[in-house]
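Form 12-C: Joint structure prediction
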Amino acid sequence: MSKTNPGNFFEDFQVGQVIEHATPRTVTEGDRAAYGSLYPTRFAIPSSAEFAASVGLKVSALRGPVVVEEHPVEELIAFHIAFGKTVPDISLNAVANLGYAECRFHQPVVPGDTLSTTSEVIGLKQNSNGKSGVVYVRSTATNQRGEVAIDWARWVMVHKRDQTAEAPETVIPELDAVVDPKNLIVPKGLDFSSYDFTAAGEPHRLADYEVGEKIDHVDGVTLTESEHQQATRLWQNTAKVHFNAEARPDGRNLVYGGHIISLARALSFNGLANAQLVAAINAGAHTSPAFAGDTVYAWSEVLDRAELEPGKNGAPGIGALRLRLVATKGRDESMTLRGEDGKYAPGVLLDLDYWSLIPA
Amino acid sequence: MSKTNPGNFFEDFQVGQVIEHATPRTVTEGDRAAYGSLYPTRFAIPSSAEFAASVGLKVSALRGPVVVEEHPVEELIAFHIAFGKTVPDISLNAVANLGYAECRFHQPVVPGDTLSTTSEVIGLKQNSNGKSGVVYVRSTATNQRGEVAIDWARWVMVHKRDQTAEAPETVIPELDAVVDPKNLIVPKGLDFSSYDFTAAGEPHRLADYEVGEKIDHVDGVTLTESEHQQATRLWQNTAKVHFNAEARPDGRNLVYGGHIISLARALSFNGLANAQLVAAINAGAHTSPAFAGDTVYAWSEVLDRAELEPGKNGAPGIGALRLRLVATKGRDESMTLRGEDGKYAPGVLLDLDYWSLIPA
Amino acid sequence: MSKTNPGNFFEDFQVGQVIEHATPRTVTEGDRAAYGSLYPTRFAIPSSAEFAASVGLKVSALRGPVVVEEHPVEELIAFHIAFGKTVPDISLNAVANLGYAECRFHQPVVPGDTLSTTSEVIGLKQNSNGKSGVVYVRSTATNQRGEVAIDWARWVMVHKRDQTAEAPETVIPELDAVVDPKNLIVPKGLDFSSYDFTAAGEPHRLADYEVGEKIDHVDGVTLTESEHQQATRLWQNTAKVHFNAEARPDGRNLVYGGHIISLARALSFNGLANAQLVAAINAGAHTSPAFAGDTVYAWSEVLDRAELEPGKNGAPGIGALRLRLVATKGRDESMTLRGEDGKYAPGVLLDLDYWSLIPA
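Section 2 - Result
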């Protein structure tokens, strides 16, 4: 019998099935630097241990026999690592990554934390063509203390191994379109009451953003062949199409969708420098493939603003800003999401809906 | 007199000569991350401090006045660094790297360790053309405590500076074709008796591998120009052909052979996830050059299995698996090493014979 | 009002104006590894914690509640980070970076240090065309203790937003052509009296270098598209021309001048391995643009030698060597800086004048 992992096919999944993914992965300061070399990120909390300390986010951690203090890495580093673990079991035979929902960041991840991911199958729906089906999973990344770091739902279209295999009972999970702001988790100790706007790079706070406002983040980055592959490897994501030019008929390496998320988030610093933390991802769609040579731009739309609840998730000086983050191939100064036909405009690569934490 | 290093030529070497190589190099967590961005590695011990701890490999180390606990980096990080040091003195004027033998990993290398390398010339043989000769060296990498981390023999063909220089007495060292398994060194404290196969990614243990069995590792990686150069620089390897397109008549940068070793080893995770540690390299040949644009695949052949000796190098739950690791340009599902003429099959890039430690 | 940063234009600057730049940035071991993957550096102090300790440069630092010992990163890592901070405010709308002067490194920067940069406008001169002007700033990078890490002057030509805006009073600061060696700052504790020349890689000390001597560093590196972008991002340098192929009419990404400085400095190891520390940059000019595909070489000219003053900046076994570091596109074995017309020779990319500290 072959010793290599063929990945799961649609008929290998059952609702209720729990999969513990290999391999646990320790986050390091090396990841922070690698991330910084791959994306033009400048958010002050992950950039500066001192800034993080000034907002209560220098976290004490045990390293062997001593207590050290570490500051958080970008939430997306943790997300990509946690997500990468699921690929060999969930999406190695995927046709497409269809969506995300209910992704919450439960606590900051710091260098030295080790992440493991488990997924539960929460829904299945065979496609009418009988060749594939949609698998819904809820994945949970835990740290070395067994605490939840991130959880999220996603659904992917997966090939069937055997097209004659019987269709499972259709189960479609109910997933919230948006994480209710009262369920957002504010990191323990976070305090924006003495927030240094000068050090952070911009003066804008929650009240300065109007619902419906759009922000053109101006800057663009031309993708090279190397960076996206380095990133995707760093997250131990094994999807063949990203690395192996022979795996696609066109001989091109498809850029990992998460690479575009990180790139767009980094570009959004210019106009959203104070949207410091990603608290939740409400929804996400990779609407078009990206390749080396494409120049990626980003724009954001303010979808909502929320006060957090004192005595529940409220914390000093902190509010929540719901944003649509759109990545485009080529700059679209008109910031058009969809054409008149209701379909995504041609250059749109990513439509991501998330909650950030920002000085109130 | 020129202040730059012209490297040694064949007639500069004498049997018994000892060369202390510059520059010592401290391994860091940054190297682990860089390695992870360059190779698709997922072996659980270097990936996870928690997994390493669970098999006895979280090593206490002094960092200034405090004791910290670190977990090992991949053996090949240490090997490439140790090897890189030898290049300016041994192989700057090499025509070809001919072989390796008797390479043993004496102890895990952890971030904070500083490696220095010394080489002794153990053999010389001038080629009949009078233009070059073979230099045999035994190199030893030691850490900051003066303990041996790795040692190995290699032989390289080196240009003569002056073709009229007299040939030295021919000395050809006796080198073992295979490291005797009773001489393999098991890291202190290593214990696979509570090994977590789920976390590690595969269920296979020593007894599941049959001598003669071949494993197609399935996945491929297309080389880009940037990654191999970044890797080779990281190891402070100064061989011109890797970085300088003007150094070769064809204007192409030759990929460092060690890059192919690391790539193939990382690809071998898919089928050999539990071949956790590299204990020894018995032999290695770079059989064909690799360049950016090549898509590299790997397959392995089980050459031997060995129990370790209780009371000597035996340790709980640990066995040794001898593997041939073959890297190919383009996938060869037939896994053919040599053609009928006895020569390496056209796509073969690497033929590496090594011992790994695996749950027994 | 737009929330994105348009950068400052010429008429936005006033002499005496002080700008605190975002975002503070913590240096990590990851930066050291990234730097090592991007430049072929082998200087012993940043390469080896043990070598650094042997010359008195293992620095005690507070990390949360414990004292750890760290060794310095390359001065240029600190410089690029500190410099990158100034770009969004000073040179986002720059036509050209015209020069540097009076750059001094006040103390080694170690992992864990957080750098912030402040600039003061010290001069202004509108160009006669009325379309742009020269802005002179003195920038100061401080660490988390508020101590100066680096300071330097530079002047850049910046576009006017409004060509009809009135010209400011011309103020041209007096800047020293060369940092007086008695003002060089020797790191506290530095002691070269037991310097290990073998470990460092070369036998040459201060007295071995003659004023006027030129050293061809021999080795070349062919630039790829990816490395220079990774480097420049790592320093959080946001100048569009480096990343965005659509930002220039020719569709090519301009290589950050600092990338060429680091590359040339790393290449200079071969012949200047003991010019261990950069103490000051006297002047620097990026004389020609560089692009992916160019093969970069370096040569140096000895401009001066200086003994340091006992009781002032003197320290055991340490002298100062003033060097001109020249990067060229293509190797120029004649090491010609300027043609007969007094202009820089065609292949010259960089002309950097600096003081290094070297065993006396």
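Section 3 - Comments
Chain A has one domain: 10-359. Chain A is about 20% helix and 30% strand.
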